[in-house]
Amino acid sequence: MDGPTFEVTSVTITTPEPRALAAFYSRLLGRAVTTEEPPRPGEPPAAGWAQIRSSADSPGPTLNFEYEAAWTPPTWPSTPGAQHATQHLDILVNDLQTAVDHALAAGATLADFQPQEHVRVLFDPSGHPFCLFT
Asked: How far apart, in whole angstroms, are the C-alpha atoms of residue 103 and residue 25?
């Protein structure tokens, strides 16, 4: 292809508690939190910024966690007039039930509605939906 090349290197997730959400995804994915920054002046103590980078043992995009002061958790499935999830993480697992159990122990919540047999929709502690699938 002629012209510019593009490579997605990271996904940024907004949340009212970026360092806490990074800790959750660290537990879930088995990746270390590689960068943490404190809140900026005037921001609440839970604010800040954090990052989880991929590694040879845990490939995939870097995850950035950014403070959002006006956070409204999305509803899923979407409902008219409510905040919609505009994106979510899809995470490949080798054993769905074991992965769900691990995610719940890490702090996730299982969604009431499960639309597919080999996919489980869960919510992270900030309310973002994510999917585990085989």
From this structure: 9
- Give the pLDDT confidence score for residue 1 in this predicted structure: 63
- The average confidence (pLDDT) of the chain is 95
Which structure tokens are listed for 63?
Answer: 């995850």
Q: Which CATH number fits domain 73-134: 3.10.310.10, 3.60.15.10, 3.10.180.10, 1.25.40.10?
A: 3.10.180.10
Cβ(65)–Cβ(50) below 8 Å: yes
DSSP state, residue 72 = -
- Ordered by start, the domain boundaries in the chain are 1-71, 73-134
Are residues 122 and 109 in contact, defined by beta-carbon separation less than 8 angstroms? yes
Q: According to the model, what pLDDT value does residue 56 have?
A: 82
Amino acid at 92: L
C-alpha–C-alpha distance, residues 134 and 118, integer Å: 6
**Tokens describing residue 75:** 């509803």
Report how far residue 123's alpha carbon sits from residue 110's, in angstroms, rounded to the nearest whole number. 6
pLDDT in tens, 79-123: 999 999 889 999 999 999 999 999 999 999 999 999 999 999 999
